[in-house]
Structure formats: structure tokens, C-alpha cells
Amino acid sequence: MKIDAQVLEALDLLARERGVSVDTILDAIANALVSAYKRSPGAAEEARVTIDADDGDITVYAQELDDDGNVTREWEDTPADFGRIAAQTAKQVIQQKLRDAKREQVFDVYAGREGDLVTAIVQQVDGRFTILDLGDAEAILPGSERIPYERLDRGNRVKALILEVRNETKGPQIVVSRSHPDLVRRLLELEVPELADGTVEIVAIAREPGHRTKIAVVSHDPNVDPKGACVGARGSRVRQVVNELRGEKVDVVQWRENTSQFIAEALGPAKVKEVKVDEENKVAEVIVSDHQLSLAIGKEGQNARLAARLSGFKVDIRSDRPPMEEPVEEATPSAEVTPEPVEQPTPEPVEEPTSEPVEAEPETVEVATEPDGMDEETEPAAVGESTVESADNAEATERVQ
Fold first, then answer.
1. Which end of the chain has the least Cβ crowding within 10 Å, N or C?
2. Which of 193, 190, 268 is nearest to 229 (CA)?
3. How far apart are the C-alpha atoms of 32 and 35, rounded to whole Å?
């Protein structure tokens, strides 16, 4: 049996396109033909197949093995009808071997590249993970490694950090991240030549993905300002990083050997008045002006939290305004304060009634002299009314007369 010259040319072209050597493909074909030979009638239990890479000749050698697996006898046993079935079997196995060879090659390319920055195109977005196309391989971006609230659409070009490369049964699995702090480091290294050549070094990074990142840098050249080199003219360099991170704020601070000065730098843009450091307990007490207190703490404590992560100290921020003094009343030795009794007004003494009953004197009512003929039993009210009427009549009579 012989492989056609056109097939050899196709194998050579396939090897160049897939990046797999021709010998690897021929070995896959040979293994496939061994499997096909063992299924043919009267075939030996063990055999090997050789393929000449120049002319494509295929030779099958049957083998006998001893108990230890050593070859005791070998002879040529190429079947005469080693044709269509062998070719179909070889085709299937070749494809599988090519996939395996490609996976091994991808694993060899990306193995040991943990921490490197890659550029990929979003291929598929799912709730659990996002598949990125790296060109020669696919990468997985888990949901936990995405930037919170970041929207990734199919076809978007993004940069990610390689976290892990695993060689699994289905092929190498490349896990990437966009929320790792080192992503900001790698992005900044692309924009700042001083970081690439070692003139400026990133000492520490504290990041809350999607919100804010603080980077501490130091210069090994006294003529180079590390903060200015990273920020760039009018913020041009750091702006590229911010754009890649979809608007995440990036603060560049200068690292100081003096812990107090470094913590004051880390709390920027707030202005710090004094820093008291307890090196043993890793605690720093920061004093700021009253109007700088909210700026130093940041929204929901973010600025203080990032400064603590960057410095490795627990940061306690206080205002320089003295506490308001409140008047304190004298109290008993215990912590409780007993209110003083309030004096009630003394009621005036009320004269008690005497034991002897007092008879009320009857009121004297002066009544005019009754006229003749008036009944003595007439009620007092009626008598009074008649008297008044009689007096009126008498006065009228006198006026007439």
C-alpha cells in the first residue's frame, strides 16, 4: 500500500496550517493502520506499520512477543486488500490525532504564561462564563473574574490576564481574569516605558474592580518622577488604562520608606495633617481637617479601605476638631445620675369647720305695705309684682291731675 503524492502534499500543507509537524501526522496514520490491520482476518496480535515520508510506501510488520514483551520474531504481513476500510479508519484516527497534537501544541504555547496579558475577542457570553477567542486557542473568563457591571458584547476586543492553564481531556483550558489587580499592572506596563525597562517599579496595588485602584510606584533613578511617568502628560498614559477598564478610576501614589508619609500619600487626594503609626500592631491613626474627613474616608469608606490594603496598616481616620464639651452635673459615685427632688408649693392652711352647727341667718326682704283686700297667702313674687304695678298707676294719676 502506498500513500499518494497528492496526499503527502496535502499533509504537508495541513501541517503548516495547523502548526503540526509532518512526522506527527505520519505517526498518527501509522497507528491508525495498526488498528485497522488488527481487525483484518488472520492478523497477528502485535504489529507495527512504517510509512516512508518520501514516497509514501506503507509496510505492515507482524510481531511475536515473549512473556516479557520483547519481540522474538517479526515478518512483513501487509494485507492485499488493505484499502477502503483501512483508509476510512486511518482518516478518523488522523483527525483525532491532529486534534490531540493541536491541543498539545496549544498547551505548550500557553503553559507557564500565567500572569501574562492577552488580547482576545468576545466569542460567547453566558451567565456563568464568557468564551474569548485568542486566535489560536479559546479562553474562559468566569463570572467571578469579570469586572462587576461590565457589559461584554460579542465581537468586543478586550484584554485579560492569564490565571491558569490546565491540560484536560478535552484539551487545554485557559482561564483568564479581568478583575485581578495584576491586570492593571500589565496594562500600565504597556503604556509606561519606564516600567518596562525597570526605571520605575510598582511596589503595591490595591484594587476594587470596577470602582477604584491605587498603585504605589517608586523610581530607581533620582531624575525620574515615578508618579509623573505613570500618569503621563495631562494624564495621557493612565487614561489608556482607565479606558480599557471601562472608566475605573486609577490613583498613582509615590511609595515612601517612611510609613507615615506613605500612608499620607495613599490617602490622597485628601490632605493629611498628622499620622501616628504603631509599627508593632500595624495600626495608623490619621488626623485630618474637619472638611477633609469625608474625602479621606471616601464613598462607603473606599478611599480608606484601599489605603489600608496598599500600606498593610489598619487606618483609623479622625478629625482635628475637638469634641464639644457638655456640662456635667455632680453625680453620685455610681454611673447613674439621680435627679434632684423638686419642691412643691406649700398649700395654705384651710380652717376646719367648728364642731357646733352654725345656723344661717334668714335674709330680710323688705316688702311694701299690702293694700286692703290683698290675700295674705299670696306668693312673695306675686306680691312684689302687684306693688310695682300700683306704684306705677299712682304716679300716672298724679301726672294726669
1. C
2. 193
3. 5
Q: Give dist(CA 301, CA 303) in Å, integer.
A: 6
Reported as a single tens digit per residue, the pLDDT across 274-309 is 999 999 999 999 999 999 999 999 999 999 999 999
| Cut 0.90: pTM above it | no
Residue 48, phi then psi, degrees to nearest 5: -140, 155
Q: Which of 179, 173, 106, 177 is nearest to 136 (CA)?
A: 106
DSSP helix/strand/coil, 50: strand
Say if residue 337's pLDDT is above 90: no
Q: Which domains does the chain have, with CATH numbers?
A: 5-110 (3.30.1480.10), 117-177 (2.40.50.140), 180-255 (3.30.300.20), 267-322 (3.30.300.20)
β-sheet bridge partners, residue 76: 61
Tell me, letter by letter, the H, E, C secondary structure of 140-165: EEEHHHCCCCCCCCCCCEEEEEEEEE
Rounded Cα distance between 308 and 206, Å, is 9
**Which residues does residue 159 pair with via DSSP β-bridges, in sequence order?**
119
In the numeric block, which cell numbers belong to residue 128? 456563568
